[in-house]
Amino acid sequence: MSNIFTTSVKTSAGDGNLRRFGLLAFGDPNLDTVIAVDAVPRADQKCLGRRLDAFAGGTVANVACAASRLGVAAASYGRIGADTAGEFLRAEFQRAGVTTAYLRSMPGKVSANALIMLDKSGEKAVVYEPMPGPALDPETISQALVDSRMVHAMPYDLEEFVELSKLAHSAGTAVSIDIETAMVNGPAGLDALLALSDLVFMNQRSFSDILKKLPTAANVRQLLERGPSMVVVTRGAAGAIAVSRKQMVEQSAFRTQVVDTTGAGDCFNGAFIAALLEGRSLMQATRFACAAASISVTAVGARSGLPDREAVSALLAADQLPDY
Q1: I need a surface site. Which of 4, 56, 137, 177 has the fewest CB within 10 A?
Q2: Does some domain include residue 118?
Q3: Does residue 33 sit within a domain?
């Protein structure tokens, strides 16, 4: 195909459609415990809360589920504990249509957890407890990458990500990442992440915190000079900016009733990747992803509101913009 995925994102020519999976989600899923609060407490404050429920979560895991709901063959690569939460996380992947062949159960370990405090406006604060140790397993990673057209990661461990990127590109697999403020230790750290990646996602807060700039189209485009073929910055209710070496798109968000913003960015990323893997243009992918993310915030839980293709198409049609 001649499209922005094959021309702008480095991947092997000719074999993309022969691979089992469009997307490999690299990273451990976690259990999200969601508590409703009037306002998120500050340091040395206490507030009353109401436990809403426990949900399957994890940033890259949510991306895989979002892509799968939209028709992409997706697989999870990572670890769960040999506990009740781990069994639940595996079952939830399978319910979303995500393959768990590369999801390893670790004896004696506890699955990753997140505590999410959700205020009245639907905004959140998160405390995350990861599983210790590396997710990358030398005995299984190579085959998982060969099976996949793109791998998506949250690279908190730079040494591990260097190895993942090297193996992925050797296998002809494109590398997508989501960059958050906490994973970047100065300009050199950001440069390393950008140089190792093909597709880069950031939200507007991380962009501003890391670069000390507003996420304007011109400022986002400058990141292309450091290595990636495509950079996308999500801006919440303002939509998203996406740039490639030949194009720039600014897309507004779609009007919706916000219930819970947890996982909205993950839904956007999964939908954007899904559109790229189908050969859609940068504009089409950005518009499609904004529509999907707008639907995702209408239910409590990172995956509860993940839309299928019919729902996204209906929203696009209601906005008098035809589905691609």
Answers
A1: 137
A2: no
A3: no
User: Does any domain span residue 214?
Assistant: yes
Which DSSP symbol is given to 310?
A: H
Q: Are 198 and 230 in contact (CB under 8 A)?
A: yes
* DSSP state at residue 279: T
291-309 tens-digit pLDDT: 999 999 888 877 888 999 9
- Which residues lie across from 26 on neighbouring strands? 77, 153
Task: Write down the H helix ranges in 12-157.
Answer: 59-69, 84-95, 141-146
Burial of 310 (0-12, 13-18, 19+ CB in 10 A): exposed
The structure tokens listed for 279 are: 């050969």
CA 182, chain centre distance (Å) = 16
Domain count, the chain: 1
* Containing structural domain, residue 81: 4-27+59-109+134-318
Q: Give 77's strand partners.
A: 26, 102
* Euclidean distance between CA atoms 224 and 230, whole angstroms: 7
Q: 169: closest CA among 11, 45, 60, 7?
A: 11
What CA–CA distance (Å, rounded) separates 9 from 224? 12
pLDDT digits (tens, 9 = 90+) for 96-113: 999 999 999 999 999 999
Q: Which two tokens stand for residue 3?
A: 């499209």
